[in-house]
Amino acid sequence: MTAVLNVTNLSAGYDKVPVIRDVNLCVENGESVAIIGANGAGKSTLVRTICGLIRASSGTITKDGADLTRVAAHHRIRHGIAVVLEGRHLFGELTVRNHLALALTQSRERATQRFTLNDVLQMFPFMSERMDAAVELLSGGEQQMVAIARALLLQPELLILDEPSTGLAPKVVKDIVAVIGALRSRGMSIVLVEQNAALAATTTERGYVMSLGRIVHEVALGEWAQFLADEKLARSYLAG
To answer: How would you classify the pairing of strands 56-63 and 66-67?
Structure first.
């Protein structure tokens, strides 16, 4: 497999206050990888740095070998990276149709069109009847699905999901897990950022554990069960 994402010695923060330090990770083409850790571990800062919303203070970010470290966030979309940030960042007054149309417009120049509007409507059946509803009128779970659908219509090769299960009912989380499974079967490269290690274990092949802004442990392919069974290890990194 060829690495779709390489993060090397990456450090970043806010107003010269370091948050993540010397982070190294990679995602192979078609691979699903988790980043897990407690609140405050630096996971969201890492995501925002990878997608260009925070400027790296040192280190490099490459996508398919291209150095994106100093590339603006909207250009990273053109390089095939799409992210669903924690909090979803939807426009409440716009309709579901508006959100999906905006994504389709942005992705018009992408050489490979991986997802059509019909594809996402099949993944999220409720949308067909709610296309003209303002997203502020949708439930939290429905909003999360709109955010994921919008990201997919940007035609990414790499999809980053930042805490997609936060605050959602178990039934909705199950639906999102099913969607992630469907994306994996289509060969999508995925980074899943989660506090819930058990959820990460069911949806990804391997993972990285963050604590205090650093990668402190790697869960290798086939080692999720071993990691979860080691209560002392999991508690030391994931306990609130």
So the answer is: antiparallel
Measured distance CA(46)–CA(52) in Å, rounded: 10
pLDDT class of 2 with cuts at 50, 70, 90: low
pLDDT band at residue 240 under the 50/70/90 scheme: very low
In terms of C-beta distances under 8 Å and separation of at least 24 residues, what long-range contacts does 100-103 make, across chains too?
Answer: 100/127, 100/146, 100/149, 100/150, 100/153, 102/150, 103/149, 103/150, 103/151, 103/152, 103/153, 103/154
Give dist(CA 146, CA 138) in Å, integer: 10
Relative to beta strand 17-28, strand 66-67 is unpaired
Q: Retrieve residue 153's tokens.
A: 């219509």
Note the pLDDT tens digit of each residue in 199-215. 999 999 999 999 999 99
When pLDDT is averaged across residues 44-49 and rounded to a whole number, the result is 95
Six-digit token string for 167: 């605050």
At 138-147, the pLDDT tens digits run 998 999 999 9
Q: What are the residue ranges of helices labelled H in 124-219?
A: 127-130, 140-152, 170-185, 197-203
Rounded CA-CA distance 206/216 in Å is 14
CA distance 145 to 12: 30
Q: Per the structure block, which two tokens stand in for 100?
A: 């999906």
Pull the structure tokens for residue 4: 């779709």
In terms of Cα–Cα distance, which of 154, 152, 133, 155 is closest to 142? Answer: 133
Q: Is the pTM of this model over 0.90?
A: yes
Element (H or E) spanning 62, and its range? strand 56-63
